[in-house]
Design goal:
5 helices; 22% strand
Length: 148
């Protein structure tokens, strides 16, 4: 069970938010206005991320929610503290800790999130029993020579 969108929480550094705005700015992008209305929004300003807790867009790649705060967990710095790290090619990404995701879904108290909880609990239990073969050991990302 999924909530059918991609949630991302960007590093809030201004240059990073500018890059994200540029990537999402496309002729076919629409932004959520109100509860369920989407309006064309081909040019995204990075300030949108600073003035909203969540910005929801629909792109040709699917729906994307940009979260600047994870409910009942906190901001990027709070989330990344417990996050798992993965490498996609030469790009390092963080995935929020499953317990933080669960806490957020419970706090948000939406029907679609409640429907996803059973799968999230099962995933949490599996991650506790079995190591994630794709997770990167943070020590492996450190240079051999600490002076480099």
């Amino acid at each position: 069970m999924s909530t059918d969108d991609l949630d991302i929480m960007p590093d809030p550094e201004p240059q990073n938010l500018e890059r994200l705005a540029a990537v999402l700015s496309r002729p076919d992008t629409a932004r959520k206005i109100g509860a369920s209305t989407f309006e064309p929004h081909p040019v995204i300003n990075a300030m949108e991320f600073r003035t909203e807790t969540i910005c929801s867009y629909v792109t040709s790649d699917g729906p994307i929610d940009v979260l600047m705060q994870l409910p009942d967990v906190g901001t990027y710095d709070d989330v990344v503290r417990n996050a798992r790290r993965y490498l996609l090619g030469d790009i390092s990404i963080f995935a929020a800790d499953i317990d933080d995701i669960i806490r957020s879904k419970v706090a948000t108290d939406r029907a679609k999130d409640w429907r996803a909880l059973d799968v999230l609990y099962e995933t949490r239990d599996r991650l506790r029993r079995e190591p994630d073969p794709y997770e990167v050991d943070p020590a492996a990302l450190m240079p051999d020579d600490p002076d480099t």
